[in-house]
Design a protein that fits this description.
single chain; about 475 residues; alpha+beta; Outer membrane efflux proteins (OEP); elongated
């Protein structure tokens, strides 16, 4: 090797060593801290210790398995578990998460040198001249951009935070689909219950119509009594048909949630287990780790914070190292002869001297993006606390209504029977029977809908508490990204 070549080699080596030494020393990204958010010491609607509307439950109930098992319904369990593998919204969230993970791997790859293999064969000639021998060239090239200012590492951090936000969005999509699936399932069971109530009412009204017609035939009742009885019967039949149609729509919604066409799903009629499970509460501050939407919003802040450093890095010069080693000759064996070997090492630097404030504008835009993400995060937190409080208040109200609605339904059933007996004895007009029948059926349907509302509110509270999901520790996630 000549003196000049040796000097160039030592210079390139020194420059490379200097770049490597400076690599961990510089970073232009602002340190990240989780944004502060209002977190009350306790929920306003938390039930008291002696409350009867919210039975006690172990605090770790939601951690021990799928939350829908709290309802103890094997049919529900089988259907909700199909949401995981068949629901297309969940499948889209899974694909988005996989895409975000691929972007993390792409960002990490930029931290390492890239290698390329170059090969060429050239033969030239012209009119009136003999052709020149073929020139073969084979070489291995390398290039690397040292991450002196931390721009590439911040890109990895931003991509990692975005991937974690995608994971939280996946959990939110899964929880939403599961909650909607359970809600539709219980609505379907309530529809079956109302169909049974209406079917029973139709049978009772048919008996009343026969009795009224018999009394009319012997001159005891009036024609208006028969017409009123028939109107009541036909109206109830129409309501029954409408409820059967509603039941079919709910079954179609269930099929959609598990990714099947409606023709491939049929939920058999079965007794409705209307019990309401005890849903364990959590400390309000824990909600920040239990709600996937909160975790996604917080990770969006982390990604936006890293973006500030990425934009700041444009203030500083960028460096690039390149190298090449190979051979050149007229035959393949000559490519590997020492006399034909060629090599090169290079270091290049670039610095923006004037851009009319473009870099400053991008940095300010990144800061504004972070402020926007922080505001969105705090709004999501406030909305989460409101959601929990709303569900607790709803559960409280429905629990207090339960005993009252049951008593009202029982009294209405008794009134209906007494009124019918009085009519048969000629003590009252048939209008009184119609009114009593309408009130009794309405009370039964209201009680059925109340039981559904209590189960729906329990599902809503589970969803508001984040189900059984927990956000990963932010410090651990940051260490992994680094």
């Amino acid at each position: 090797m000549s003196t000049t070549s040796a000097l160039a080699h030592r210079t390139a080596t020194w420059l490379l060593s200097a770049a490597l030494a400076a690599l961990p020393a510089c970073t232009v990204g602002p340190p990240y801290q989780r944004p502060s958010a209002p977190a009350p010491a306790a929920f306003k609607e938390t039930p008291s210790a002696d409350s009867t509307w919210f039975p006690a439950a172990p605090a770790d109930t939601l951690e021990r398995g799928p939350w829908w098992q709290l309802f103890g319904d094997p049919v529900l369990t089988g259907l909700v578990e199909q949401v995981e593998v068949s629901n297309q919204n969940v499948a889209a969230a899974v694909a988005a998460y996989a895409q975000a993970q691929a972007l993390v791997r792409e960002a990490r790859a930029a931290l390492f040198p890239s290698l390329s293999l170059d090969a060429s064969a050239t033969r030239s000639g012209g009119a009136g001249s003999t052709s020149k021998p073929t020139i073969l060239q084979l070489g291995l090239g390398a290039s690397w951009e040292p991450d002196i200012w931390g721009r590439l590492r911040l890109s990895v951090t931003s991509a990692q935070a975005s991937a974690e936000a995608s994971a939280a969005n996946l959990a939110a999509a899964r929880l939403s689909a599961q909650a909607q699936r359970a809600t539709d399932y219980f609505a379907r069971r309530e529809a079956d219950n109302e169909i049974a109530l209406l079917t029973s009412a139709v049978s009772a009204y048919e008996r009343s119509l026969r009795i009224t017609k018999n009394q009319y035939d012997v001159g005891i009742a009036q024609l208006s009594d028969v017409l009123q009885a028939r109107t009541q019967l036909e109206t109830t039949r129409a309501n029954l048909s409408a409820m059967i149609g509603q039941r079919a729509l709910l079954e179609h919604a269930i099929a959609l949630l598990i990714g099947k066409p409606p023709s491939e799903l049929s939920v058999a009629v079965a007794p409705w287990d209307a019990r309401v499970p005890a849903v364990p509460l959590v400390v309000p501050s824990d909600l920040l780790q239990r709600r996937p939407d909160i975790a996604a919003a917080e990770r969006a802040v982390a990604a936006a914070n890293a973006q500030i450093g990425i934009e700041r890095s444009a203030y500083f010069p960028s460096f690039s190292l390149s190298g090449f080693v190979g051979g050149q000759g007229s035959t393949v064996p000559s490519l590997f002869q020492a006399s034909n070997n060629v090599w090169s090492l290079g270091l290049s630097a670039a610095q923006t001297l004037f851009d009319a404030g473009a870099i400053a504008a991008r940095v300010e835009g990144a800061r504004a993006g972070r402020d926007l993400a922080v505001a969105n995060y705090r709004q999501v937190v406030l909305t989460a606390f409101q959601s929990v409080e709303d569900q607790l208040a709803t559960i409280h109200s429905l629990a207090e209504q339960d005993a009252q609605r049951r008593a009202a339904s029982a009294d209405a059933d008794r009134t209906e029977q007494l009124t019918l007996n009085q009519y048969l004895q000629g003590q009252i007009a048939y209008t009184g029977v119609i009114v009593a029948q309408v009130i009794a059926l309405s009370a039964r349907q209201t009680l059925s809908q109340l039981m559904l509302n209590r189960q729906t509110a329990a599902i809503g509270l589970i969803q508001a508490l984040g189900g059984g999901w927990h956000a990963p520790d932010v410090d651990d996630a940051g260490a992994t990204a680094k």
